[in-house]
């Protein structure tokens, strides 16, 4: 069985797996979702694709990973599951792989809906979830996209990162600024 991750699962799956592949799914793009912080979810868009990681789980890993993810994503996150076609990044990749994905829907009571990149960044700065601070979430996801999927364009994600970094200098003192005072 394959499980596709497109948010925090790309750097912190939290379950054992046999192998992993970087690639994409079609028909979705990243959106934003819920408090106490903003995390990504998928919004249907037939012309879009979303990059992430598919994890292969086998044998006892299947039940253990599904049990873990059902708590992490379905119970705590309010996500639904869906099977999608995953397209591996490798040049000699085989046919698409059927993979399970967790998706938060707009019907989720915590779904926040669209907002400007600046508003999302301002919310990220002051928000934490059960897995950590939203700043780390955003920066790790942007790094994953930059280093593992350089051919992919995720303008929305990078615009939020840019908005966040334009705010951050106001929040942190550097050693130089402390020496000047």
From TrEMBL:
One of its GO terms (biological process) is glutathione catabolic process. It comes from the Eukaryota. Gene3D superfamilies: Gamma-glutamyl cyclotransferase-like. Its EC number is 4.3.2.7. GO terms for cellular component: cytoplasm. The keyword Aminoacyl-tRNA synthetase does not apply. It catalyses: glutathione = L-cysteinylglycine + 5-oxo-L-proline. The keyword Transferase applies. One of its GO terms (molecular function) is gamma-glutamylcyclotransferase activity. It is an enzyme of class 4 (lyase). Keywords: Lyase, Transferase. Belongs to the gamma-glutamylcyclotransferase family. ChaC subfamily. Catalyzes the cleavage of glutathione into 5-oxo-L-proline and a Cys-Gly dipeptide. Acts specifically on glutathione, but not on other gamma-glutamyl peptides. PANTHER family: CATION TRANSPORT PROTEIN CHAC-RELATED (PTHR12192), GLUTATHIONE-SPECIFIC GAMMA-GLUTAMYLCYCLOTRANSFERASE 1 (PTHR12192:SF26). This is Gamma-glutamylcyclotransferase. It comes from Oxyruncus cristatus. The lineage of its organism: Eukaryota, Metazoa, Chordata, Craniata, Vertebrata.
């Amino acid at each position: 069985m394959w499980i596709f991750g497109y948010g925090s699962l790309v750097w912190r799956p939290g379950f054992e797996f046999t192998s992993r592949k970087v690639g994409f799914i079609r028909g979705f793009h990243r959106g934003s979702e819920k408090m106490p912080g903003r995390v990504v979810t998928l919004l249907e868009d037939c012309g879009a694709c979303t990059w992430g990681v598919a994890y292969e789980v086998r044998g006892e890993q299947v039940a253990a990973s599904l049990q873990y993810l059902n708590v992490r994503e379905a119970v705590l996150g309010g996500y639904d599951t869906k099977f999608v076609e995953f397209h591996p990044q490798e040049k000699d990749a085989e046919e698409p792989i059927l993979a399970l994905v967790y998706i938060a829907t707009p019907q989720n009571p915590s779904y926040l809906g669209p907002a400007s990149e600046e508003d999302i960044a301002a919310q990220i700065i002051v928000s934490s979830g059960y897995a950590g601070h939203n700043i780390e979430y955003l920066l790790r996801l942007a790094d994953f996209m930059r280093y593992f999927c350089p051919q992919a364009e995720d303008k929305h994600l990078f615009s939020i990162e840019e908005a966040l970094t334009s705010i951050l200098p106001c929040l942190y003192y550097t050693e130089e600024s402390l020496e000047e005072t």
